[in-house]
Amino acid sequence: MTIKKPVLLIGMALVLVSLIGNYSVFAINQLKSPIMLKHYYNFSVPSGLTLELHYLVNRSEEMDIQYATIGDSEIPLYSKESWTYQTLRHHKVKTLYFQLDNHFFEDMKYDEMTINQIRVFLTNGESMVMDVGEINFYKREDSPLDFKSSGSSNDNSGFGTLSVEENMNIESYEVSFINSLKNNIIYDLNLGEKKVDDQYSFPISKEKGDIISYQYHWKFKEDDPMRNHYYYTTLTLKGKDESNTPYKHPITMDYRPYFTEKDVKEIIKEAKK
């Protein structure tokens, strides 16, 4: 069968227009540099802590993060490895793992510190300062409580239990980042006592062998930009042990987002402001 020249030209023109259109969409969605996502972490400070930072990069990965330092200091944060957290149509969400040892905290010369920015060094030789959110480190204290069990689900819920290792009092508790997250995290702390108007009356005495349980659930509205952040919050029990020594014991409640194409577009739009 002979194809007429006008039909052939029209077909070639349609193919060309399609290619140009596809390339235009591809080009529009390409990032000039990686976008660091926001992290809101509250960490106690043990040796060997692994810090995870997540960022958005082009799917082709022609430009990536090689290593980082805290702000403009000379304290290095060297990544152990990188891992693809999620692959989308034009982009990847990647995770950098940083090993923080005792030398890291000795160099910082603080028992408590907060990181808001890091300087990243890219594979093309350039460097830039990136906002990471708010990452708080604080000194770990001895506690009369011990981890017993915990679990989580892909519906952003979790649970756990603690065992009481010696007679103690619980005088209060606090939740990190609660002022901004009060509508996003629902938690229930079971201290084995009756509540009045949904509140515990402190102090509460606990005996060796008692069990404390907790559960939590993260919930974000579909249009809430905070749903695209990473959270490692703590519910911290405060009180005194049987020697009348103050203690603080953190309970971890974490959240990891799963991104849609719509989420990524919003992240890129916000980064360009």
Protein described:
The structure is a single chain. The chain has 273 residues and is an alpha+beta fold. It has 2 domains: 105 residues, Immunoglobulin-like, CATH 2.60.40; 111 residues, Sandwich (Immunoglobulin-like). It contains 4 helices and 17 strands. Strands 2, 4, 5, 8, 9, 12, 14, 16 and 17 form a 9-stranded mixed beta sheet that branches. A 4-stranded antiparallel beta sheet has the order 1-3-7-6. It is globular, with a radius of gyration of 25 Å.
User: Compute the gyration radius: what is it?
Assistant: 25 Å
User: What's the main sheet like?
Assistant: 9 strands, mixed
Beta fraction: over 45%
Write the CATH architecture name of the largest domain: Sandwich
Number of helices: 4
For the termini, the CA-CA separation is 56 Å
Mean pLDDT: 85
- The number of distinct β-strands equals 17
Order of helices and strands: HEEEEEEEHEEEEEHEEEEEH
Principal-axis shape equals globular
In short:
The protein is α+β, with helices and mostly antiparallel strands and 273 residues long.
Write the SSE topology.
Blueprint: H1 5-28, E1 35-36, E2 39-45, E3 49-58, E4 65-70, E5 76-77, E6 79-87, E7 91-100, H2 102-108, E8 113-122, E9 127-139, E10 145-152, E11 157-164, E12 168-175, H3 178-181, E13 185-190, E14 204-206, E15 211-218, E16 230-241, E17 246-255, H4 261-271
Parallel strand pairs: 2-9, 2-16
Antiparallel strand pairs: 1-3, 3-7, 4-5, 4-8, 6-7, 8-9, 10-11, 11-15, 12-14, 12-16, 13-15, 16-17
